[in-house]
Amino acid sequence: MNPSSAALVVFICCCCCCFWEIESKYMVYDTSHKIQGDKINVHLVPHSHDDVGWLKTVDQYYTGANNSIRGACVQNVLDSVIQALIDDKNRKFIYVEIAFFERWWNQQSELLKNKVKELVNTGQLEFINGGMCMHDEATPHYIDLIDQTTLGHMFIKREFDQKPRVGWQIDPFGHSSVQAYLLGAEVGFDSLFFARMDYQDREIRKSDKTLEFVWQGSKSLGSSAQIFTGIFPRHYDPPDGFTFEINDVSPPIQDDVLLFDYNVRERVDDFVAAAMAQVNVTRTNHIMWTMGTDFRYQYAVSWFRQMDKFIHYVNQDGRVNALYSTPSIYTDAKNAANETWPLKTDDFFPYADKANTYWTGYFTSRPTFKGYVRTMSSYYLAARQLEFYKGRNSSGPNTNALANALAIAQHHDAVSGTQREHVAADYALRISKGYAEASELVASSLESLTSSRSSSNQEQTVGVFQQCPLLNISYCPASETDLPDGKSLVVVTYNPLGWKREEVVRIPVSFDDFIVTDSNGKVVESQILPIFNASLNMRSFHVKAYNGKSPSSTPQYWLGFKASVPPLGFSTYIISKAEKSADTSSTLSTVWTSDSTSSNETVVVGRGHLKLHYATNEGKLTRYINQRSLVEEPLEHSFSYYSGHNGTDQASGAYIFRPSDTFLVKSEGQNAFTIVRGPLMDEVHQQINSWIYQVTRLYKEKEHVEVEFTIGPIPVDDGVGKEITTQVTTALKTNKTFYTDSNGRDFIKRVRDFRSDWDLQVNEPVAGNYYPINLGAYVRDENMELSVLVDRAVGGSSLVDGQIELMLHRRLLYDDGKGVGEVLNETICVQNDCKGLVVQGKYYIRIDPIGDGAKWRRTFGQEIYSPLLLAFAEQDGDDWKNSHVSFFSMIDESYSLPNNTAIITLQELENGKVLLRLAHLYEVGEDKDYSSIASVELKKLFPNRKINKVTEMNLSGNQERDEMERKKLKWSVKDSSEAKKIVRGGSVDPEKLVVELGPMEIRTFFIDLDYLRMFGSERKDANRA
Ligand SMILES: [Zn+2]
């Protein structure tokens, strides 16, 4: 339109309206509308999606720093939203991420805090989800999900006496069944909402109005842990044309008649049209509009002003009813609608938003960060136990910083590996600071527990314990020490699990002859193994990265010794230098290396029941034999890589896995493999190529294969990004079927190129069959089952019958266009020496007769999650033995937890109560012995203490279990033909104090304990005074 014709239009409009007779005036908008039963109700839900770190660090997002990356300041959001709510009591807002809210809260005046409490009490401000972050659902372990949710819920309970009712997982890239039944129903949520789901599934659900349904995520807990679930028709932003951040382009309502662009009628029509479009895909006469998106409401009135007007004018119009609402109000309306809802089981993995865009790469992205989070998760669990034994000290070293750091690390752009490099470093720094403090606590707790009753001089033991967080790269100054005459090394091994463990402990040492004795002075079997150059090179580089300087000495050997550790307790081992060839001393391993002259023979490795056969000339694994279980099966083991699709159309990147081709990694070099043998273990070392090293380890007394891999730097100088996988291959006839865990808990059946909910159109035969793995995967046929367990979150699949594939590392050269705007090309620099990231990790392989695999997956799986915690000290002569407690179990000495249960939380809370969480580790029907009800005797868990009161809580500990059950909404479900009876433990008799657990059940208790006179009790009381 040219200027002169525009002027003409304005002139004509002015004449028509004759507006000079009307004056603009103060308008009162009626925003008080509630639900109307006979109309279409449009629930406007104002929200801001505030990532706890992604493109910026959590601090930067909070303060608005680094706004050149992204104009986002959460402080602005909260400041302006609170004022906007105070200004109109009908306005509502939901807040989700407590990591941000808690910071903001702590900075407010008492006056404002009281006003905010009022907003919360009246329901204007509602906390939903309420964990510290909106956690990822693919890559966290369920224990971490519980912990981070508990932390946020406890804050809300403490400050506001509120319990969030709604799960709000709007952004995570796929949704787990553990989220639905455990972090949803068992937390006490009445509903769960999210946005992202497979694009094919979404179209079908829109057409048959099944975007809302009842989800039963666990086959063990079935309808007893179900949740109403709603998926947004498109995304978590408003319909087009209804976004109102100050820079947004949606037309505002211009209702002052003086305005040339007066548009009330048009905008009301737009609103009604958008509402009717959504009504067409939704059951009942209630629809929800998510009014907000990432980091919105930095100037909140900009949104509220428009919503005020829409509510006012739309309701004047009367075709639909618009109201300020929250997901709770919406859920109650759905519940009241007397509708029968479709049923959903299993989960929403994998997620694809387009034909070639499968979000299955992040299952593995940043594998070392994923490993670090997992290691620290288990350390946090053990540290809280030790904190409990010692007595919590809020001023001294405690676990709070580690708890907070781990909580935000569960965010859907944290452990997922989808954040920018500087943000990943920030998360890791926070965890390492938390670890540093927690490790002081662990040391001081062990010091107090090892201090003898009779020891009058406790100060002697302060600061004696060292720990070795870099033990994985064979760095442990405490054990590498010289041990001058008369000195010996004391190793305290702590077991956080409820059952006794017998394991081989490995530590780097500088000599090759030791005697290892246990707490009774009895010699235990030990073995010396060489540390090869591959390990030493990695050690040197990474110690320099960690400490700023290279290690001063180089250990030559590993010392392995047999440790036996009581449940929830420790045992102590003394390591002294031995006279050469004393018959009690450690056995030197034999080392055999194949060379080009080796003839093609079979060599057998393993000195227990389990044997592996290798072909000597190629170093190829050929056969797996267990002489006890009589399993005998061809077994192969290989590495491959996918070349990442390049930048045109959809690239492989931090989120997306889009392979172009697959290549087998061939063995290079003359030394095909080296075999190390000794009394405790055999190892097969293989330099697979110049950037993959592998150790296959068989312990004499275990019946699984431990594989330690070192991968990287992945070469990319050919301009091709690579995603490295390993394949474990048997001849099992598995008929496209495999099983992967959900957040380390329930196993879910997967069928290649198949989805249970719809007829899958296969566009990505590899990426579309990848699933997240946190505990493991297995395949089976009529006779046998092959299981693989992992030490961190990875992606995996079974792309060929009889085979399990894991993706272990990825390095890519293109951004995948999903917002992170950075290439996933992790590089480690020490001074000016930069190289691609090297990952070292482990996975475990076992083949069992059919039906026997679960015992290993569950019980040993828990041991992988919770390794023994090691602490080191030195003794002079025999002084340690004489003056210290060297064997301790917190629980009754005759007692041990059944092998199907774990203590997943034992923690002293700030109020002095004890939080105890017990988990049944097996699913219904999974194992003939262990899938039964389990009992735990609390009196035996806390001997020497008086249990005053036991209160069963919901999963996050913010309400009593009874109250939660009472308030739970009931839903009518279609096709809910529940054949099996659900087994749950009964209520706890206050006299007997026995807790029963049904399969997959997790029960949470607050326990009031009195500290009786017991070992260590004087100190405990002194601490408390
Ligand atoms: Zn997000």
Report on the architecture of this protein.
The chain is α+β, with helices and mostly antiparallel strands. 24% of the residues lie in helices and 28% in strands. It is globular, with a radius of gyration of 30 Å. The model is unreliable at 1-20, 455-461 and 1013-1025 (pLDDT under 50). Zinc ion binds at residues 49, 51, 171, 412.
Q: Topology of this structure?
A:
Layout: H1 3-17, E1 41-46, H2 58-63, H3 74-87, E2 93-95, H4 98-106, H5 110-121, E3 125-127, H6 142-160, E4 166-168, H7 177-181, E5 191-194, H8 199-207, E6 212-216, E7 226-231, H9 264-279, E8 286-291, H10 301-317, E9 321-324, H11 327-336, E10 340-341, E11 343-344, E12 352-354, E13 357-358, H12 367-390, H13 400-408, H14 421-450, H15 477-480, E14 487-495, E15 501-509, E16 514-517, E17 526-530, H16 533-547, E18 557-565, E19 569-577, E20 587-588, E21 590-593, E22 602-605, E23 610-615, E24 620-626, E25 631-634, E26 636-644, E27 659-664, E28 674-677, E29 681-689, E30 692-699, E31 705-711, E32 722-729, E33 737-741, E34 747-751, E35 771-773, E36 776-780, E37 784-790, E38 794-797, E39 803-811, E40 827-830, E41 833-836, E42 839-849, H17 853-865, E43 869-876, H18 879-883, E44 887-889, E45 901-908, E46 914-920, E47 934-937, H19 938-941, E48 945-953, H20 961-967, E49 972-973, E50 994-997, E51 1002-1011, H21 1017-1024
Parallel strand pairs: 1-8, 1-9, 2-3, 4-5, 5-7, 6-11, 10-49, 17-20
Antiparallel strand pairs: 6-7, 12-13, 14-19, 14-43, 15-18, 16-19, 17-18, 19-44, 21-28, 22-23, 23-24, 24-25, 26-27, 26-32, 28-29, 29-30, 30-31, 31-42, 32-39, 33-34, 33-36, 35-38, 36-37, 37-42, 38-39, 40-41, 45-46, 46-51, 47-50, 48-51
Helix pairs in contact: 6-13, 9-10, 12-14, 13-14
Bound molecules: zinc ion.
